[in-house]
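G.,

No rush on this.
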Amino acid sequence: MMNKNLIRLAVFFSLLLTIACGKKDYFQDTGTHAGSFNGTALQYLESKPEYFDSLVKVIKLAGMEQQLSANNITFFAPADSSIRSAIRKANELLDRIGKPRITKLTDIAPGVWKKHLSKYLFKFSKSLNDFSQIDFSNINTYSGQMYESVSGISMNIGAVYLDIQLPRKDNPNEYNVIKYAGARILTISYLTSPFTPRDVGTWRTANISSVNIKPTNGYVHLIRIVGHDFGFSDTEFSNDVAYFNN
């Protein structure tokens, strides 16, 4: 129960941050990103080196250029800062076990990059409107939907419908709550435990800051910087770098 309450609070406050930060984030927060892009998803990322320079290098190190250029894909793009965060935590583990630190992206094996990058890529083309509702405090009713990534990893994707609070006419200091009538926030979650798929306390959830970027081969949704490490689980990524980096 404690884990469930903590993740509900974490998602709630992250959603509040998503709304409050506005254009201070690395693109725009919430809503639909304006316009289409005349090129593939990979070419879109290449056109934004200030945000995705390391991500593009990781895609190429993982040998996934063709998959990001194929038709009918959806890619949840993590920012470079999430890669730096994951490497920093991996280096902390490497220090503890007496192994050399990671100093460049090529120090990590292509297989490790591909394993974790594959969590973000799907063989379908879906916008925000195509995903089911999710309510992390009422998962039995609004559970989003389970999808398999390109490598068969189970991920939950869903849209959180925020509530609206309207001041009461008879007392402006009190509010009427209209459930699920507010803005929608797209989320993607990695299930760390396949044995308890509905236990949100075991999920690692990322919120999307900008949705519905439309390259010619599908959709790109940008993952919010705050609170996200590349690979969704810093423990799994660090362990792979420390013990399976060959």
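When you get to it, here's the other one too:
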Amino acid sequence: MTYNAYGLSRDIPADVKRLVRQRCGFGCVICGLGIVQYEHVDPEFKDAKIHDPEAIALLCPQCHAKITTRMWSKARVKLAMRSPKCRQVGYAREFFDFVEVHPALRFGGVLLTNCPTPIQVSGHPLFRIRPPETEGEPFLFSGLFTDSNGEVSLVIEDNEWKAFSNSWDVEVKGQTITIREAHKVVHLVLRVDPPKTVIVEKLNMSLGGIRFEANGDFLKVTQPNGSISELTSCIFDNCLVGMAF
């Protein structure tokens, strides 16, 4: 573990990181990309005595490299911190990678493979997978996630995901996106296993009066009339529509 001259560890506490994410809108303050690193801006880490969330910015690896190599100045980051890109546009964004094969969707206890519309709600695709527009290009995955109150928190449009800045917290670690509604209240854990699988590991979502609850290999669907379906270890393969509600 690295410490500076004041004995401050480079390991930023989780609650401070969350405050930084919330202030920055969950993405790079300069470009808005959602894969980020934490950068002490003013003071720099070597001069910092505390981890002050007001003095730390989110930067994508590319923008971060431009700062550390001094191609860009810290003044550029300070300016962006006043009006972070994600706060301007309303979301952080990045792209999934689905090359070579038709992506599968693991939705709690259900695996949906080779389904152009894995899940449909009230006649509308909740998820949609289209073949490449040009040979050799990626498959195009689209989908929608809401929280337990029906508020949209994450959309995927032809592989580009957008996590909305009005969420309580969005955290991206490696291949996993975690979205929280409140402190210790997780409503979505989404993991990608490129280039072929999207995995919904945890979900508490309400859409059109239907509640979807997923945890590991278990999926529970509650209809507006109160009827409940519980699914585990189910596979839908080569269906035009995998599941319809």
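Residues 21 and 227 are 39 Å apart (CA to CA). The two ends are 50 Å apart (CA to CA).

Enjoy the weekend,
O.
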